[in-house]
């Protein structure tokens, strides 16, 4: 399925509609390259840009060719190559361009390309023909600095002057004009109050005091917008300290010296203060001393606070007895004193408002804190980094493309030594062409120009790109000069000594086990210092070198399923402390969470029984060895049940396996003097649990679902919950029994091309092939014709079902319908009128319910859906349903719930013709999303926010303008959480702040696993299972399980009265009956009817 924006770009430029241009514009704005580009430039590009998809190894253009196009790389990577002789053997790869890179600027001077560009993987590019790009440049060259490197030679580049932001001072009259008249209902934020008179990149601060004006007249302070916001945040914190705990900032004397230090505070005391001051806040909470330390680190690295004594602690902010001072308390700091005067004039000194400003600025600082903490760690020498430090760096580099080709072991080792380097000034040379290679660089922030002697700038590298590696690998001189293209560039740096040691020693630490000349297991030796369950798949071993004990471990990299089972039994189940060892590392858990990918349940149980019957295969083994080996199988089974109880209880193969294993062990227990008593008791307990579970299922009966006519898949029959215990401890049990089982039934309609239909009732595990045959028989279709089942979506898109797929009715899109048709006549299928969706909004029915009550209902509903999903369902979906004989109906319903909420939000806004009512609906939806977030229901939260971010809604400028400023700011904050940059870093940081249980953003979990699956081979050389891939997948699956841990209990809204105690039933009925529009084309038409497109 092609994305809408790609479909629009695939059209000829002359055939693009207004709707196409809107879709393209909305998408281009999300790309890294265009985020800071003026909208008028992006709009012009929408008219003329052409999308191109190229395979690996395609030459885009050659060195010396005439420049005919300007390019922007959307996905993939490209190699930039040069040759001084024209011979193939002399070709040198200068650098690799990553996503978000623009190149081909020489079209502006009718020049020729100074390098060749070749794809090193499948790529997607935007191409703008020469004449079109020159036309845009002539109209908007002053807006194109972000995507064009204007100098074309090294000499011109060095002559460039650094641009900066200027702060000047004039009169207060202009301030009021620049702020504008405030409406009586709007209260500006503190940042709005300080951001005055924005004109391009210049910020003018004015003040009324004549004396100050004379003192500062003619003086210019150069600062960026972000620096001003940081200074203001620091000033607000200091102001709040003076209001609530003025004794913290005073003259102090350190025990180690007689000197008195003016206006100082102690690091640990300020940490206590910020935790206490946010403890009672409902808006923001600083939950730990580490988090507080990270907030102050942001201020510290921007020199807003600095170390006073002892000076050896001056590298970072520490939560210890160290003296610090705010720069505002330094009377010799003219810049700070100037800003203090401006802040005092423009921010009202009101205790309540200052408290609001504090929380607002703490939110801003918390967004910057993780990166500040990362930089703080990267500045530490490798020997001073803790295990927690290394884990933080490891998690960061996992999301950087430059490291994606490296194994997890190498990434882990690099995390301990990788360094941070920043360059403040533009046009600074990092290294020159011909220099000896000493470092490998990865760009964290900013951009650099790649310059070759006599050719000038050949390309510009941006955030996420790397350079300098080839010189280290090939022991060759630098092939180009690297010069910063903007100020404040930040890099990750790997020094050559570490590069050589880690990457070259990596292969030497690999152990390969062979049987009959074929590799069956590949292990990698690692030091115990790197051991960590959450990011290692390892085996811990003790050995002795020169009579001194040395700890090391083996990480399983690849192996056959049978050999890995052997390895697990021999190394994990060999003592009574196997559960303690299981808690320390993750190989066993990773294996059991992912085994359906590469081995069947039957194969697994047969392998375990084969190990158990070792005495039948080899009569020469000692009795102790035989007993230990049988116990290992029992321990394996116990942990298997602990890790995957739901799947364990539902699997029929396990029932047969348990019966046979217990029967064998009872005989062996008599034979070996009751050596298996403990294991036998545990296995019988599992069997009893499974029997009780089966009994409950029988009492539960078959549940019937209906998916025949509306958006929702509804449950038609209820289980008798009175049959089960209703204590809080039993709640989860009831939820598990409400999960969809393979024997549950579903009613659905199947349509013919003429829109006649038949209704079928089938079990969830009925294959599509059987459903097709039953439908053909009921519709009296010709048996000799080759029919197929196909989903026809509301936008006429078609999806053909595989014959082996199960539960196809739950996989439909919101307004999708199942058709039965001849394979050659699929184009003749037309949508049903009902697939267009509703024409009348329905949210007015919820006027009697508050936003919090609706969010409370949605959260309980979503939690039940999420809790019912087993992690294996994610595997079945990502790896292809047709490859597994299991259902994914619970996951399907959770995904459907997300889509319903998303399009419900869009539909309700667009179907309201009254502007004032539309604004009220928008406000209510944003408030519902906010309460969902408070309830830790991130799935519903993002469903609503993504819906309101749809281009059909976001383009309604009149509607958004009428929305309260405060609500708009809140929505902007919410929307920023779905920013896809840095692998959805902001969302992941938000997720880390919540304790389980919670409902995560389910579509992103699926996307994470899909990327891991498509980007890594399941089987490597000689058919071995790639366990590095399994480990990465298991991390996501383990997180899903962690989100379900604990009892999910949220406090009901205080507004509920006894009259509203039946409100869940009322809301359930409403959401069961809602109808939405999921056709983007129709949504855009409704949007244009509300507000015509501005030309």
Automatic annotation (TrEMBL):
It comes from the Eukaryota. The keyword RNA-binding does not apply. One of its GO terms (molecular function) is guanyl-nucleotide exchange factor activity. Residues 261-328 form the DEP domain. Keywords: Guanine-nucleotide releasing factor. Residues 744-825 form the Ras-associating domain. GO terms for biological process: Ras protein signal transduction. Coiled coil: none annotated. Residues 850-1093 form the Ras-GEF domain. Transmembrane segments: none annotated. GO terms for cellular component: plasma membrane. Residues 552-688 form the N-terminal Ras-GEF domain. Residues 33-136, 402-503 form the Cyclic nucleotide-binding domain. PANTHER family: EXCHANGE PROTEIN DIRECTLY ACTIVATED BY CAMP, ISOFORM E, GUANINE NUCLEOTIDE EXCHANGE FACTOR. Belongs to the RAPGEF2 family. This is Rap guanine nucleotide exchange factor 4-like. It comes from Dermatophagoides pteronyssinus (European house dust mite).
